[in-house]
Amino acid sequence: MTAPWRPLPASLAPEVAYLVGQLRELKDRSGLSLAKLAAKTPYSKSSWERYLNGSALPPRPAVKDLAQLTGEPVERLLALWERAEARWSGRAAVPLPTTAEPEPRSTPADPKRDSLSRPRRHNLVLTIAVTGAVIAVIVALAFPRVLPGVAPSGRTAPTYTVGCRGTQCTAGDAQGMACGLDAASFADLQVDGTYLELRISDQCQAAWARVSHTAIGDRVSVVDERGQAETISVSDPTVPDTYLPTRMIAADQHSHVRACLERTEERHCTPWGSGHPVHVPPTTTHRG
């Protein structure tokens, strides 16, 4: 059984944390220990431990090696690495260009006018500063996990969401919302050759179902005690051997959610979520 990962450093940039979360999940799915991973790559066991604990940014070739070992599309992981490296190195924090204001023309001093205008200018500057601080607080409260991305050109790309919590996660994609960073499987079920998991992120307070080795026509759901559910149907013949996730539902308690599989008019469900992760057998291909 794979030991639970320790939490990533709170100071880690979201782009870096998301990359590390993806690498952790690939490593777990592959079934490779750190020692075996070191044996199959040019990087030592202690190096991989640093990379996967967030204390060091993995080199680009290490990310490529792990992608190839686990059957993950290399281009996707390298794109995540580029974004993470930009934040790690500080290239993402490019200051905006500024233009110097022209020097004012010298005019004869007017002591009376100067003494009257100085307090007004001071009050105006103070008002602008306070207003800016208030706006910043409002934005931070309204969008606590929305941060700018970095385009390859170095410009700021459109904003993207790196997290959610509770009902904010409803119908969201677990990987796109970065809820996979701390996720684990808290219930599972095997139906013939199909493996069904209940995935829960305590950080996001959200749950989703994940299934592998499906059959065409299968319907997979994550559902809570009140009947709230997110469901996917398997219709693509090219994906039965991959991991397929549902969208998320809110999950403030593990014991209030479970995953279900409907096949040929029969419904099979995992137990309600437990307090401890279950062992996940390795697989080589996934979609979330």
From TrEMBL:
Entry superkingdom: Bacteria
Keyword Acyltransferase on entry: no
Signal peptide span: none
Single GO MF descriptor: DNA binding
Residue numbers spanned by region Disordered: 92-118
SUPFAM superfamilies: lambda repressor-like DNA-binding domains (SSF47413)
Pfam families: DUF2690 (PF10901), HTH_31 (PF13560)
Cell membrane listed as a keyword: no
CDD domains, alphabetized: HTH_XRE
Regions that span the bilayer: 123-143
UniProt keyword list: Membrane, Transmembrane, Transmembrane helix
Gene3D superfamilies (alphabetical): lambda repressor-like DNA-binding domains (1.10.260.40)
Residue ranges of domain HTH cro/C1-type in the record: 22-77
Name recorded for this polypeptide: DUF2690 domain-containing protein
Native source species: Amycolatopsis pithecellobii
